[in-house]
């Protein structure tokens, strides 16, 4: 009797020890391995199985002992059937006989079976099964001990599952942060860097491994700050907590800092950084999370908008002022104008109205190109570029007395398929520029050459020319070379942008050859068919 008592005490100690070892584990597969080993040892069994319910509620074998892994699909199949039978008949007997059949199929010597549910908070989460060859009967005490062990194991499994899920969530979150297109930076309360994602490596030219542990100010350095200051906000008591209007949640305000970041390689990048505080339960700042966004495109768009507004308003003002002035003069009731004056003033009004119409047309076309990335053409005619050039020269000749003009086309210059209205616009624009940007006059030559597949047309002047740096930009929307001549000269910076778009819509190319002070030659090339 004493010996039996001693055995029971030792069995309980063993159980306790194992339970502790199991519950201390957070790795699910290790927990399952320990549970199954302990159960088989405790019952002097030969085979052990643990099935857990997956997300769909179905039982799947997750750990085995004493079974070859090739038998697992068979065991899963058997398990499915026995659980279906049990749920249909609500009888343990059917389940039990299927269980015995399974044990026998594995090894005919396995004559005893034990199956215990792993239950957490009243919910079955899995099944612990042990098969043994021993014919000795299990006492109710054995079963009770085993059940209490199964309960402990269920808690351990549940903890490990929870941990696994949290770990999975953590990994998923880390992957999101790592692969985010925005830079993400985590700081501790002393503003030292705790983590630094890949996007931020690209933005700052710093490597994450080199910055962890460094103070923020050593890595995030500014060439220019336009808005906000994290240190100032902290000194002023940030994070400020405010109740939102709905009277509910307490929200922490973010600090927004914007400016030109000085990268490690000396280059600059326009960024906006949003700092969000992370507080502990006592409301103390534990971390700061920074979201860093590259705002270069946004800044460029803003700049473009400013240029657009100033250029367009300037270009609109001149003709509108002229129209208004001439119309007001003609309307004066105290003077009777003779017919010549009326004609002359009306002509100015008409010309300036045409200019306004052309400007508006150009703006609309430019915005359509922006939206569709290309230009719509009526491309069904054979266009004689030499004739267009001749007509244009005739028109411009009468406008400019300071320039001499020369045409240089062979008589058999081939026609090209295209949109004659648009191609005329290109030649007019190049000639107009040649005049505008050679204020001292000189020769303006328009010519062309052709081979079997393509034709090229050039417009050459002897004007101020264009530097190499500006040559790269003059075909951009609203770009105008910064100089006194350009400032004095009317223009929107749209002419070359539209000309190039027209030539490219025809499948051709356009370029410039120039040196400052040496004049400029604009050349476009189109396919012959
Ligand atoms: P704009 O309306 O200003 O003339 P364009 O798009 O036609 O606009 O030209 C863009 C800029 O390129 C001009 O502002 C001028 O600075 C430069 N440019 C164009 N053509 C010439 C040229 N023939 N010689 C020198 N500079 C030129």
Count of folded domains = 4
Architecture of the largest domain in CATH? 2-Layer Sandwich
Q: Could you give the count of β-strands?
A: 19
Rg to the nearest angstrom? 42 Å
Structure report:
It is built from 16 helices and 19 strands. The strands form 5 sheets. Strands 6-5-12-11-10-7 form a 6-stranded antiparallel sheet. A 5-stranded mixed sheet has the order 14-16-17-19-18. A hairpin with a 5-residue loop joins strand 11 and strand 12. The longest helix is centred in the first third of the chain and has 40 residues. The protein starts with a helix and ends with a strand. The chain binds adenosine-5'-diphosphate. Adenosine-5'-diphosphate (ADP) binds next to helix 13 and helix 16.
């Amino acid at each position: 009797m004493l010996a039996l008592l001693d055995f029971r005490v030792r069995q309980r100690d063993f159980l306790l020890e194992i339970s502790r070892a199991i519950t201390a584990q957070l790795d699910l597969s290790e927990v399952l391995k320990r549970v199954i080993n302990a159960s088989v040892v405790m019952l002097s069994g030969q085979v052990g199985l643990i099935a857990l319910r997956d997300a769909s509620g179905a039982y799947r074998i997750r750990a085995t002992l004493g079974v070859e892994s090739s038998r697992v699909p068979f065991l899963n199949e058997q398990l499915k059937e026995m659980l279906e039978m049990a749920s249909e008949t609500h009888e343990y007997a059917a389940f039990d006989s299927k269980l015995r059949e399974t044990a026998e199929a594995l090894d005919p010597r396995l004559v005893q079976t034990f199956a215990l549910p792993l239950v957490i908070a009243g919910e079955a989460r899995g099944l612990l099964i042990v098969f043994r060859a021993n014919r000795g009967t299990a006492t109710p005490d054995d079963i009770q001990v085993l059940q209490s062990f199964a309960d402990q194991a269920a808690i351990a499994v549940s903890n490990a599952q929870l941990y696994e899920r949290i770990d999975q969530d953590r990994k998923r979150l880390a992957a999101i942060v790592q692969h985010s297109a925005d830079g993400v930076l985590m700081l501790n309360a002393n503003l030292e860097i705790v983590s630094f994602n890949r996007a931020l490596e690209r933005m700052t030219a710093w490597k994450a491994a080199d910055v962890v542990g460094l103070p923020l100010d050593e890595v995030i350095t500014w060439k220019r700050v336009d808005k906000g200051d994290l240190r100032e906000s902290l000194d002023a008591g940030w994070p400020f907590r405010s109740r939102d209007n709905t009277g509910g949640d307490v929200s922490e305000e973010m600090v927004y800092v914007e400016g030109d970041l000085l990268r490690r390689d000396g280059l600059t990048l326009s960024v906006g950084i949003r700092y969000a505080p992370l507080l502990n339960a006592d409301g103390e700042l534990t971390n700061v999370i920074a979201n860093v966004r590259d705002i270069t495109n946004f800044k460029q768009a803003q700049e473009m908008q400013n240029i657009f507004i100033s250029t367009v308003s300037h270009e609109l003002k001149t003709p509108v002022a002229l129209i208004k002035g001439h119309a007001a003069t003609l309307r004066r009731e105290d003077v009777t104008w003779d017919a010549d004056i009326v004609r002359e003033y009306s002509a100015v009004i008409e010309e300036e109205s045409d200019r306004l119409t052309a400007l508006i047309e150009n703006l609309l076309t430019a915005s359509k190109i922006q939206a569709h990335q290309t230009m719509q053409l009526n491309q069904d005619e054979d266009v004689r570029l030499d004739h267009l050039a001749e007509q244009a020269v005739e028109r411009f000749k009468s406008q400019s007395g300071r320039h001499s003009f020369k045409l240089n086309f062979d008589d058999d210059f081939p026609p090209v398929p295209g949109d004659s209205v648009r191609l005329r616009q290109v030649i007019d624009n190049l000639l107009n520029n040649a005049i505008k940007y050679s204020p001292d006059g000189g020769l303006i030559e328009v010519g062309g050459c052709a081979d079997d597949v393509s034709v090229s047309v050039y417009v050459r002047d002897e004007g101020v020319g264009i530097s190499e740096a500006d040559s790269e930009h003059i075909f951009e929307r609203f770009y105008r070379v910064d100089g006194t001549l350009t400032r004095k000269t009317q223009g929107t910076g749209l002419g070359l942008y539209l000309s190039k778009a027209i030539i490219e819509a025809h499948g051709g190319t356009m370029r410039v050859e120039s040196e400052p002070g040496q004049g400029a030659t604009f050349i476009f090339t189109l396919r012959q068919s």
